[in-house]
Specification:
The protein is mainly α. Helix content is about 75%, strand content about 0%. Helix 6 packs across helix 11 and helix 9 runs antiparallel to helix 18.
Length: about 500
């Protein structure tokens, strides 16, 4: 029975990504790249500068803080497990297709985050909130479509990703002698579900604070360790690049087994990891307090690069440079652990396990941040009752527990399908409203050329003021003195 259900999910998954999502992702990414004249590459230096821009209103979320929220959500077990799975099942060429989708996908990330800023909403305290549901409503003139997106988002982040994250975590324990496939997954699932449950129910503040501090450090340490492994195996690097490119362009093999090819797996796992165009990061982007929507759009392109070009590439190079065996039996954590063991011995697997625990824990908590936004939208922006929140959080914890023992195939299929559903609603909405984001970009560049610190007015690009909560003319006027002071500084630089 379970095998039949799994096969049905896999059939849907295969069709969804080839040809449907592959075409949508590539067309949208290329379209936005051309329309913005390669904004994700052309204004890369500007994006880096904007990270350090100060927010004078300390009570508001800064551009950098919003970047950290979205990056924390992107960076997780997918950077380790997703890459390993793609390489083991699809081949080293998957790495190349991850890079391609990252670069063109960054343009989609720019558009969706810029739109989230333009159409963000204001709460009673004057703080900003929003996300794709709000601009999807505007694009399709349909709350039903926006609510369908929210349903897919909840299915993705409360069920699909949590199942997968829990499963991925427990696979990192398979290398140890005490691992028993009948009991260990349930024990690990229970422990991680309990810890997440404590935090969700209002306790565990020290745990949350500890992980929020240690995970960025762990991410940097992970990259450093990968460089050490690559350095020790430097003689294998030329052959590694040869394998990546020869496999990436082996079209006979790709079209011979399309669904399981390096191209499709690279696209799948790249999307799972960096989420460009999925519609998740804009939920965080909308909360940022910036003087121009384009600033947050540019900053969010960096989050995609950090995730894929840095962390995913670190995992791929670390594994491929060692030359350890790759096959379906070791796909996931074991392949990465074997690679580190070849250099660090018994310490290698332990390092990956610790990384997985920390990444998984913060990812599980971060996933539910997005879910909260979607639930509020479905409830017509009325705050949820405490009783509903408690019941829902309990159900999320139960999913985490079950995820540790589900089939790997069904875990990946559910996550892929629900995420695909989000993407198929979000990207068409972005294409419909893309002209608004392009006009905002032109307005931004025009002001930069005039040596000004860009200040956005919705009316300047023809947006009806009734459609936005922010960006009113009087609101922009209130920031004029601050903008002029910053413009002088820009001119001097």
């Amino acid at each position: 029975m379970l095998d039949d259900i799994t096969r049905q999910f896999e059939k849907i998954d295969d069709f969804l990504y080839y040809p449907v999502l592959m075409i949508v992702l590539i067309v949208a990414g290329v379209y936005f790249t051309l329309r913005t004249k390669g904004v994700q590459i052309r204004l890369f230096k500007e994006s880096c500068k904007l990270i350090g821009e100060k927010n004078d209103d300390k009570g508001k979320v800064s551009s950098f803080q919003a970047l950290m929220v979205s990056t924390a959500s992107r960076v997780g077990t997918g950077n380790i497990i997703g890459v390993s799975t793609a390489i083991c099942l699809g081949g080293p060429g998957a790495c190349f297709w991850m890079w391609i989708m990252c670069i063109i996908g960054a343009a989609s990330a720019f558009i969706e985050s810029t739109l989230a800023q333009i159409y963000k909403r204001k709460d009673a305290e004057g703080n900003a909130y929003g996300g794709p549901a709000y601009y999807i409503d505007k694009a399709f003139h349909s709350k039903k479509m926006a609510k369908l997106f929210c349903i897919f988002l909840i299915a993705t982040y409360a069920i699909g990703f949590n199942l997968l994250c829990s499963f991925n975590l427990q696979t990192s324990f398979q290398t140890y002698s005490f691992y028993d496939e009948m009991t260990t997954p349930y024990i690990i699932g229970f422990v991680i579900a309990l810890l997440v449950g404590i935090c969700l129910m209002g306790g565990g503040k020290r745990i949350v604070k500890f992980t929020s501090l240690i995970v960025p450090v762990m991410g940097i340490l992970y990259v450093i360790v990968s460089f050490i492994v690559i350095g020790i195996n430097i003689k294998n690097v030329p052959a590694m690049f040869s394998d990546i490119f020869s496999d990436a362009f082996d079209f006979k093999a790709i079209f011979g087994g399309m669904a399981g090819s390096c191209m499709i797996l690279g696209i799948k796992r790249g999307l799972y990891s960096n989420e460009a165009g999925v519609g998740s990061a804009p939920n965080a982007s909308a909360s940022a307090h910036v003087s121009h929507p384009v600033k947050q759009g540019l900053v969010q392109t960096l989050s995609v690069y950090i995730d894929t070009l840095v962390l995913c590439t670190a995992t791929a190079f670390m594994c491929l440079s060692t030359g350890v065996d790759r096959n379906s039996a070791v796909s996931g954590a074991p392949y990465v652990q074997n690679a580190l063991s070849s250099v660090f011995g018994d310490i290698g697997p332990s390092f990956i396990t610790i990384s997985m625990i920390l990444f998984a824990f913060t990812t599980l908590l971060g996933n539910l941040y997005y879910v909260d936004n979607a639930l509020v939208f479905l409830n017509n922006n009325i705050p949820l009752s405490n009783q509903f929140r408690r019941v829902f959080k309990f159900e999320c914890v139960a999913v985490i527990f079950l995820g540790s023992a589900v089939s790997v195939d069904i875990a990946w299929a559910i996550a892929d399908i629900t995420m695909g559903g989000m993407t198929l609603i979000n990207l068409p909405a972005c294409m419909i409203l893309g002209g608004v984001a392009i006009k905002a970009l032109k307005d931004y560049e025009k002001q930069k050329k005039a040596k000004k610190n860009p200040i956005f007015k919705a009316s300047d690009i023809g947006i009806d003021l009734a459609e936005v909560d922010f960006w009113k003319d009087e609101e922009a006027s209130g920031n004029t003195e601050e903008a002029e002071a910053e413009s002088v500084q820009v001119a001097e630089e």
